[in-house]
Amino acid sequence: MKTSVGKRxxxxxxxxxxxxIVGLDEDGETISTRGTSDAALQAALIIQRNVDMPLWIxxxxxxxxxxxxxHSSLAELQAAIDNARRSQ
Length: 88
What we know:
Blueprint: E1 2-5, E2 11-15, E3 18-24, E4 30-33, H1 38-49, E5 55-59, E6 65-68, H2 74-86
Parallel strand pairs: 4-5
Antiparallel strand pairs: 1-2, 2-3, 3-4, 5-6
């Protein structure tokens, strides 16, 4: 998996034949992902590790939203997203 992080927290990630864009919004409080592929979530984890505060994370389809803070792995983040989707 190859990830590059640019200005203002925008990350572009590609894994094999899959690519995605994950961004940090202008106020610096919300990460938005295009879907919840491993590539998208890995990029979100990289952004979160470089920010010293909790962030909201949403996908572009608004199928979940949650506070993103202490998730350290793809599995933890995916479980939190699945839980957020069930509780909507």
